[in-house]
Amino acid sequence: MPFDELLARIAAISGKDPRRIRDLLDSGTVVNGNSRLRWERLDFTHEEFAAALARLPDPDPARPFSRDACVQVVLRGGTGSITVTKDAGSKRRLFRRTSFWDTLLDEITDPEYVNYSYSDRADVYRCAATSAIDAASRIRAMSVHEILLYCTR
Questions:
Q1: Which residue among 17, 18, 63, 75 has its CA within the 20 to 30 Å range from the CA of 88?
Q2: Which of 74, 142, 86, 151 is nearest to 115 (CA)?
């Protein structure tokens, strides 16, 4: 596994905290869910480590929401959450002009930036479910109160 990929996986667990990442790299092992990654001790200078961390994206609250970059939506409700990918949500039924994905994103107005997700490799935006979104019967039935939008860079 390339070092940058290992670094991204560690950042998905610990965030972009240099001290925590360095501790995990020095330990030679990390566990994430059912996966356990192990490696031999890595010797690198402080400058090499800083350069590798600089290659990881930083959260950017000034980054505007881009509908075209959105690849996943998570609908959160009182009973749980449902994840809809762009590929799945963009499929249209026969004789339908718009897809579920298009209908949902048409109703999104002014989402706020939350953070960068290293595990999803995407910027995360949040918006409250509006009355227009609640009007869609499928979404209303789930009692959606929050929508998270994942956008790639």
A1: 63
A2: 151
Structure-block tokens of residue 119:
């595990």
> What average pLDDT does the segment 88-100 reach?
83
Residue type present at position 124: V
Enumerate residues 6+ apart whose C-beta is below 8 A from 36. Answer: 29, 30
Our CA dihedral for 76, 98, 153, 32, rounded to 10 degrees, sits at 40
CA distance 73 to 105: 9
Confidence (pTM): 0.78
Q: Crossing angle, helix 3-14 and helix 46-55, to 10 degrees?
A: 70
CA distance 14 to 21: 7
Domain residue limits, the chain: 3-55, 67-151
